[in-house]
Amino acid sequence: MLEHIQNNDFINIITGRRSVRLYDENIPIPKEELQAIIQEASLAPSSANIQPWRVIVVHSPEGKSKLRPLVQFNTQQNDTSAAMLVIVGDTQSELYVEEIYNTAVEQGKMPKDVRDKQVTQIMSMFPHIPRDLKIEIAKIDASLFAMQLMLVARAHGYDTNPMAGFERDQVIRTFDLDDERYVPVMILSIGKAKEEGHQSVRLPSERITFWR
């Protein structure tokens, strides 16, 4: 999908993105396509390539019913979207380091000696990082993933809305995950817009840039 996007198309994806709050309930996203969107978004960068993002895909009526009281200011997105994507950070993502780096060697993307050196360095450091720093790292990396997911969704013809207003202290347990390990980052609604999102204003680049 993404390899066919031209430069102008990509600019249009960025400039045409809107935060959509009302979706067409009659247009679902096939599971295979949503999985492909998540896979393509996973090309986002992360610290030491440990990819700490995880996604709870809330798409069933039962799942949305459980989520609804936790997103009281965003129930319209919950009720009409094809899915609500709860983006969480995994504070134990170093558990996947060997799998990731072994696969890189198997696919010819990394020499084995480089793999051995990097895995040793990562595993000598990450397991001992304080939890609050692990949370910060996971949130930064998962936010990069979330932004990329919004753009990938747009490339697939769907719309999204990022949400920070939800019950963070409840959402992980509600979907039967370990809230000591996983930390909530944001929720993305995704679907086909029923009403186009409003354009918004951004500060000009010269107002946000410091040249030294």
UniProtKB/TrEMBL annotation:
<dbReference type="Pfam" id="PF00881">
    <property type="entry name" value="Nitroreductase"/>
</dbReference>
<dbReference type="InterPro" id="IPR000415">
    <property type="entry name" value="Nitroreductase-like"/>
</dbReference>
<comment type="similarity">
    <text>Belongs to the nitroreductase family.</text>
</comment>
<dbReference type="InterPro" id="IPR029479">
    <property type="entry name" value="Nitroreductase"/>
</dbReference>
<feature type="domain" description="Nitroreductase">
    <location>
        <begin position="14"/>
        <end position="192"/>
    </location>
</feature>
<protein>
    <submittedName>
        <fullName>Nitroreductase family protein</fullName>
    </submittedName>
</protein>
<keyword id="KW-0560">Oxidoreductase</keyword>
